[in-house]
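QA checklist item 7 of 12: single-chain prediction sanity check.
[x] sequence parsed
[x] length recorded as 328
[x] structure emitted
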Amino acid sequence: MRFIAFFLPLSLIAFDLWADLIVYSSRKEKFVRPLLDKFERETKIKTKLLSGVKVIKILEEQRYPLGNVFISNDVGQLEFLRLKGALKGIDIRAEIGISQKFRAKDNSWVGLTARSRILMYNTDLISQKKMPKTLWDLTLPQWKGQFAITSGGNSSMIAHIGALRSTWGEKKTLEWMKKVKENAGAITKGHTDIRMAVGRGEFKFGLVNNYYYHLQKLEKKHNRVAAVYPDQGGMGTFTNSAGVALLNNPKNFRESKAFMRWIVEKENQKLFAHASLEVPLNPALKAPKEAKAVHQYKTLDMALDTLGKNWPKSKKLIERAGLDLAVK
């Protein structure tokens, strides 16, 4: 380990020397840092956070892992890592209140919050009655140029396509992507651009994760927005999850297990969820203001661990549709 350290970035060498727990995260630092500060105060375990980490980095480091835990916005990524042998199973108490649907079979990853894919719309431009009610409606000519989506390279979109592929099959999902790509008025890298554009009235609606709607409602202006949970009369709204995984790294393993067991305590589940205005998966915890609890709407009935094994195929399908690099 000391030998290969000379080939590692100096920033990684530095924090590897003093941190008890190295936390990788694909979430924004502002959503994770308060959680780690609380963990440090309560356990006296020192942490170092590295944000913006992608799955490929963890796979590349498998032989000589540096990170101890990984916080992700997509449990499909976490299950993919588990299947690649990058995660380690752990015993977690049954009373954590998280359905097995949102956990790995060996508890190497645990989902904590719901991230439902909704249509956020500008109430000055369109009424709820006139809004599309299904995802397939986005392919209709009447909506051409009137909505925004992210590119297929966005992790939430990859997971969503994976869910549609499992439900609709490849042919219909590919057709949907191609038609929506042509119909969309804008294709962005991220969801913040969509929520702001819809809030300003540049588009009637956009396809986003539900918490972006909650964030837009908190803006001092351009906050006249509402949400439609699509496909309530059919397959249901796709609901992914953000969660945490235990990386297969023997170094600092005691501290890693301590973090995994700490994060699933109800108080800390709540902090994890409310920091980003997401909805807790634990039904005993209240959702943020104006957010619907998961049991209040119909969700797509699928085990989220299927997203992991289908993740590479979903990315290839997105590439076939040309949606991976499409930004307009």
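[x] summary fact logged: The radius of gyration is 20 Å.
[ ] second reviewer sign-off
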